[in-house]
Design brief:
This is Transmembrane protein 150A. The protein is an all-alpha fold and 271 residues long. It has helices at residues 6-28, 66-69, 75-104, 109-130, 137-165, 169-196, 201-223, 226-229, 234-246, 265-270; strands at 249-250, 257-258. The radius of gyration is 22 Å and the shape is elongated.
Length: 271
């Protein structure tokens, strides 16, 4: 067992805890309404609640979408930090998982596509975290439009890889768990998109709840990689990085490009 086992669970714990802190700060600073609030008005001129207490009168501008919670300072600063650090951790996890699959099985388009989807998800998170919706709406929506579908594609492909690599009963149980998490992510993302395009306060609030469910579900999915990362070795990242270089290596017995991981052991030693 290696220290890499801490990385996936750290991503889940750090990000889930962080976004809930952002939500709590936004509620206390009266930038959004509590998630348990279902009453919205067109005007809140009669809202006399004191600063530091939740809003007592809410409009559609106060719906507690995750992005809305991280729009205004000081919570926007923490929101950006979570997005940047979380995206970095996602990239590391994706590369380690990519290399681990290569070590356990031959390279496949599913594994490569999963890596691309994971890194795309991370890029979208950086955009979402640094371009707040009220100040850079177009860029923020582009980031969300990239991050959410890419995250869903990533978890779907990882379900396929999990079943492909499963050898023991516990491996199949993990695959079943990931399929369940993926189903929840798919349903919540679709419903969130459907509800979000309507102006109804009820549907907007449901969209916010579905968005929270989707994000937390995806983060829990990333945390499940703790199960495999106990077997990550020092050569796992090398396996991921080396593959592209290995395609340019020539096999002694063939003139075609070889994808064998040991075609250049001297280069590996230098790494």
């Amino acid at each position: 067992m290696t220290a890499w086992i801490i990385l996936p669970i750290s991503l889940s714990a750090f990000s889930i805890t962080g976004i809930w802190i952002v939500y709590a700060m936004a509620v206390m600073n009266r930038h959004v309404c509590p998630v348990e609030n279902w009453s919205y008005n067109e005007s809140c001129s009669d809202d006399v609640a004191k600063h530091g207490s939740p809003k007592s009168c809410c409009t559609l501008q106060d719906v507690p979408l995750i992005s809305k919670c991280g729009t205004y300072p000081p919570e926007s600063c923490l929101f950006s930090l979570i997005g940047n650090v979380g995206a970095f951790m996602v990239v590391i996890i994706c590369f380690l998982r990519y290399g681990q699959v290569i070590e356990q099985s031959q390279q496949s388009w599913v594994n490569t596509t999963a890596l691309i989807a994971g890194c795309t998800n991370a890029a979208g998170l950086v955009i979402v975290g640094n371009f707040q919706v009220d100040y850079a709406k177009t860029l923020h929506y582009v980031g969300a439009g990239v991050a959410f579908p890419a995250g869903l594609v990533f978890v779907c492909l990882q379900c396929v890889l999990t079943y492909h690599l499963a050898a023991a009963a516990l491996d199949f149980w993990m695959a079943h768990l990931r399929v369940s998490l993926t189903a929840v992510a798919l349903i919540s993302l679709v419903l969130s998109g459907i509800f979000f395009i309507h102006e109804s306060s009820l549907l907007q609030h449901l969209a916010a709840i579905c968005e929270w469910v989707f994000v937390i579900d995806i983060l829990v999915f990333y945390g499940t990689f703790t199960y495999e990362f106990g077997e990550v070795s020092g050569g796992t990242m090398i396996a991921a990085i080396q593959l592209s270089g290995a395609r340019g290596c020539k096999s002694p017995t063939s003139s075609s490009t070889s994808t064998h991981l040991n075609c250049n052991p001297e280069s590996i030693a230098m790494i």
